[in-house]
Write a structure and sequence with these properties.
The protein starts with 10 loop residues before the first strand and ends in an 18-residue tail after the last strand. About 25% of the residues lie in helices and about 20% in strands. The chain contains 6 helices and 10 strands, in the order E-E-E-E-H-E-E-H-H-H-H-H-E-E-E-E.
Length: about 260
């Protein structure tokens, strides 16, 4: 629903060259057609008029919703609201995961966190996604239970270079291996990931955020037995970005 007017004191977001978005407060009433709004940045820092090119600056969510674990529960869902909520959860709640409906948003901490052990897997096993804090295990658990009861499931892991897609896939397979009782028997995650160096030799390239970034998509298919245990896996590659592979390294494979 379009906002027709706002009264003095309303909280909004305004673009910033350094922080991308900063919170501010309206110091005068706003009505459609106004070419400028008078804003004061949070903390009482700067007071200045801002040109309004087409519409009102994005509205800020109430303080009570800060750190919300599901973005879809926010009153206003736009770029500054999403970025701010993820920042609050990361810095104040030490949480890298946030739900957005059935989608899980992950912030790469570029560090190893003690939140992927078997005790954490046990805590998420059999639990509904809404009952516990957002986690990659909650997504994996929901897919596993639905697969057992109904039919095949797919988990799509996407993101930009260096966002942690490969690691997320590893933790997902770790969950399946543990709940399927196959950690010691098959080591499926180790077997699948052990093939990475071969593929990296023909499909990886350096980017500004990742020295060893995959330039191809991977489809990993895991087979389960009737009791829910892992019985095998295979991996296909697609969408090789040949233009971003600068040279090729040949790998010799020996079998003994």
């Amino acid at each position: 629903m379009a906002v027709k007017c706002l009264i003095k004191g309303a909280s909004v977001w305004t673009p910033d060259p350094d922080a991308v978005w900063v919170s501010a407060q309206l110091l005068q009433d706003y009505t459609p057609g106004d070419k400028h709004v008078l804003l004061q940045l949070s903390g009482g820092k700067t007071l200045y008029p801002v040109e309004v090119p087409s519409d009102l600056p994005p509205l800020a969510n109430p303080d009570i919703s800060e750190g919300e674990n599901d973005l879809s529960a926010l009153s206003f869902l736009h770029e500054p609201a999403i970025l701010h909520n993820l920042r609050v959860r990361f810095l104040d709640y030490n949480s890298i995961y946030t739900h957005c409906g059935i989608v899980l948003v992950a912030v790469n901490p570029y560090d190893e966190l003690p939140i992927y052990g078997e005790e954490v897997i046990d805590a998420y096993s059999g639990q509904d996604m809404a009952d516990l804090e957002p986690h990659i295990f909650s997504v994996a658990g929901n897919a596993y239970r639905t697969m057992i009861r109904l039919n095949n499931q797919s988990i799509i892991i996407s993101g930009e270079s260096g966002s942690g897609k490969t690691v997320s896939a590893k933790f997902t397979m770790r969950y399946f291996a543990v709940v399927g009782g196959a950690t010691q028997q098959t080591k499926v995650e180790d077997k699948v990931l052990a093939s990475n160096p071969i593929m990296e030799a023909i499909g990886n390239a350096k980017t500004t955020r990742n020295d060893n970034s995959s330039r191809f998509g991977k489809y990993i298919q895991i087979g389960f037995g009737r009791r829910g245990d892992i019985i095998g896996a295979n991996m296909n590659t697609y969408l090789l970005e040949k233009s971003r592979v600068v040279f090729q390294v040949f790998v010799a494979i020996f079998s003994f």
